[in-house]
Amino acid sequence: MLGPVILAASRSDKMRRFISAAPGTKQVVDRFIAGETVDQVVPIIEDAAGKGLEVTLDVVGEDIITPEQAAAARDAYLELIGRLKDLGLGTRAEMSVKLSMFGQSLDGGHELALANVRPVVEAAAEIGTTVTLDAEDHTTLDSMFAIHEELRKDHPQTGCVIQAYLFRTEEDARRLAAAGSRVRIVKGAYKEPASVAYQDKAEIDKAYVRILRILMEGEGYPMIGSHDPRLIAIAQELGRKAGRKLDEYEFQMLYGIRSDEHLRLAAEGHRMRVYTAYGTDWYGYFMRRLAEKPANLLFFGRSVLTKG
């Protein structure tokens, strides 16, 4: 039951200051965050490419409160794409973006987020890669899906994320499982009320499998976001039953978690993409990683006690 408590703490400025100052924080943050700058993350991209892995890059940052901050987030992604172009890594790395970073929650936020994300999608396409729109809390999803639909008119490879714990997601999956679509399925990492989301882990897992079956039997390109060995095995079986080749879907896992499994799946011939976050505003992302898995919280606690 610690997950909801940690997610609530992720919105607390007081907890942000406390966690940031804790002696063992950097050790744990470094496990999940690849660096603070483009220069620090480039060697990680190159290393992954050398191991047969692909990456999706997330410039972390939340709580955007001004249009200027949203424009800075856009520019950070454009800088990243420019570096990928210079290094010839465009086909090995895509981008994941949260529309909240592009101003979605501000006045006129839907139009602002679309205006800011469009040049990122266009620049990505120019270097042979693409962008996936991350899912955030349920109140933002209608806007996210509308922006996704708009972007796909000119850039049909633009992906989106759906979350298994939401009651609405099976219907969303049926709509999205069309030819040319790219859909990442995750369990979900936001604190959602019982009126819109499953609260029990077993129910979330069941929903994940139902939704994954819809995607695998559809005509789109499923992206399986999970570290759960059981769900990975089920995904492989559903892929076989649907007659999919190994390059007709992919697995995605977080940087710093189950790295051996990344290599194992790649060695088996699967497309394996590592979700790699970097940047200075890491707090919200970091807290959701702690909330997702008790072992992460224990690791953090031991680090704080050891360094304190």
Provide key terms for this protein.
308 residues; globular
Instruction: Tell me the β content.
Output: 5-15%
Order of helices and strands: HHHHEHEHEHEHEHEHEHEHH
What topology, given as strand order, has the largest sheet? Answer: 1-2-3-4-5-6-7-8
Span of the ends, CA to CA: 26 Å
The value of Rg in angstroms is: 18 Å
Low-confidence stretches: 299-308
Number of strands: 8
Content-based structural category:
alpha/beta
Q: Give the proportion of residues in helices.
A: 40-55%
The dominant shape is: globular
- Average predicted confidence as pLDDT: 88
Largest sheet: 8 strands, parallel, barrel
Count the DSSP helices: 13
Question: Can you offer a commentary on this structure?
Answer:
- By secondary structure, this protein is α/β, with parallel strands linked by helices.
- The chain has 13 helices and eight strands.
- An eight-stranded parallel beta barrel has the order 1-2-3-4-5-6-7-8, surrounded by seven helices.
- Strand 4 (159-163), helix 8 (169-176) and strand 5 form a beta-alpha-beta unit.
- The radius of gyration is 18 Å and the shape is globular.
